[in-house]
Amino acid sequence: MSTLITNIGELTTNDERGTVSNAAVVLDRDRVAWVGPAAKAPDADTLVDAAGRAALPGWVDSHTHLVFAGDRTAEFAARMAGKPYTAGGIATTVNATRAATDDELRAVLRRHVDEAVSQGTTYLETKTGYGLTVEDEVRSARIAAEYVDEVTYLGAHLVPPGADAESYVELAAGPMLDAVAPYVRWADVFCETGAFDESQSRRVLQAATAHDLGLRVHGNQLGAGPGVRLAVELGAASVDHCTHLTKSDVDALAGFDTVATLLPACDLSTRQPLPDARALLDAGATVALATNCNPGSSYTSSMAFCVATAVLQMRMSVEEAVRAATLGGAKALRRNDIGVIRPGARADLHVLDAPSATHLAYRPGVPLTWAVWRSGLLVRPPR
Ligand SMILES: [Zn+2]
Asked: Which one in 12, 138, 327, 382 has a CA-CA gap of 20 to 30 Å to 284?
């Protein structure tokens, strides 16, 4: 089954074609088969007329925490009323997650994945990290793998209440990692004051490398710290948050292929300053934008909101923000067949009910998704 989407007013390809006017795309099963001017498009089994609308690669959300149960509305309200954010609120979600059945966890995960996909997200990473026992971390990874494209082990999310930090690190870098590794591609650690320090983080990440897992780091969220330096040193694919960076952190990110993944919805929701995207981009670092969707610090699945925030408040151009939310996420996951529209890429296409991707920031908060194909399937039919 092939589909021709034609009369695309503005097509963002993220490859050497750049932005193409009056374009067409042919999807054949799960791959992009053809890209070019609408006037030269080949025939296909199904025809969709985009009538001048803009199209872009589906969003790549490279940072979410969607295996959870429970509710933290009251904690959010208290924070908005002036109570500070600390790393400890995670324990609330850990307790609810451990108490939930597998099917309860599946239902929450599926609901949020569907919510993201309906807004144009076509490739999703999610993390464990609300189990924090061997059994609950394995269960989280197993369930995550049923619904998302990439799964990350985040046993080192928080020292569980009542546990001793050193013996918990030994577990997270030892038997817990051994048990979860078969279900995941990545390992991550929350390297932050109140979570794991540099040497604890290093132990977990080095143990993950020994299991052939790719590395990701939560770093520099609540203050300057060793996260970025450690991520670059150990060759992590991405260091995420990057809210508080020194000049040497920026230089390190510009000099290596570790992606700086910015999570502006989280900074807004925790009343942190927004990251200095301009410094990173101007230095030549690769920047990704992701939601960090989780019930505590960033409860949105909207990549469009992150893009609009990046443009309106972080001085990124629309082109830079869209690229960071598509190709940047692909680089943060070390994939070269997503976040781009070219023959052979995965058939992930997002058509907006707008003539230009500029409307994502020009019309903030307005739902602009018109149609979504994910791996060639029409998951959101044209409205
Ligand atoms: Zn996170």
From this structure: 12
What is the distance between the alpha carbons of residues 292 and 262, in angstroms, rounded to a whole number?
Answer: 9
Which residues are paired to 55 by β-bridges? 11, 351
Hey, which CATH number is domain 2-57+340-380, 3.40.50.360, 2.30.40.10, 3.30.300.130, 1.10.357.10? 2.30.40.10
Q: Give the pLDDT of residue 84.
A: 79
Distance from residue 63's CA to the centre of ligand 1 (Å): 6
Q: What distance in angstroms lies between residue 17's CA and the mean position of ligand 1's atoms?
A: 34
- What's the pTM? 0.97
Rounded to the nearest whole angstrom, what is the distance from the C-alpha of residue 62 to the centroid of ligand 1? 10
Query: Are 321 and 310 a contacting pair, CB within 8 Å?
Result: yes
363 alpha carbon – ligand 1 mean position (Å):
27
State in Å: Cα 171 to ligand 1 middle. 21
183: closest CA among 211, 202, 203?
211
| Residue ranges of the chain that CATH labels 2.30.40.10 | 2-57+340-380
Cβ partners under 8 Å of residue 363, min gap 6? 354
DSSP one-letter code for 324:
I
Give 266 Cα–ligand 1 centroid separation in angstroms: 9
- How many angstroms does the Cα of residue 241 sit away from the middle of ligand 1? 8
Q: Are strands 121-127 and 46-49 parallel, antiparallel or unpaired?
A: unpaired
Give the tens place of pLDDT for each residue, 160-213: 988 999 999 999 999 999 999 999 999 999 999 989 999 999 999 999 999 999
Rounded to the nearest angstrom, the distance between the alpha carbon of 52 and the centre of ligand 1 is: 37
**How far is CA 337 from its chain centroid?**
16
Q: Measure 42 CA to ligand 1 centroid, in angstroms.
A: 43
Expressed in angstroms and rounded, the spacing between residue 292 Cα and the centre of ligand 1 is: 5
- Res. 86 pLDDT band, cuts 50 70 90: low
User: Is the CATH code 3.20.20.140 the one for domain 60-332?
Assistant: yes
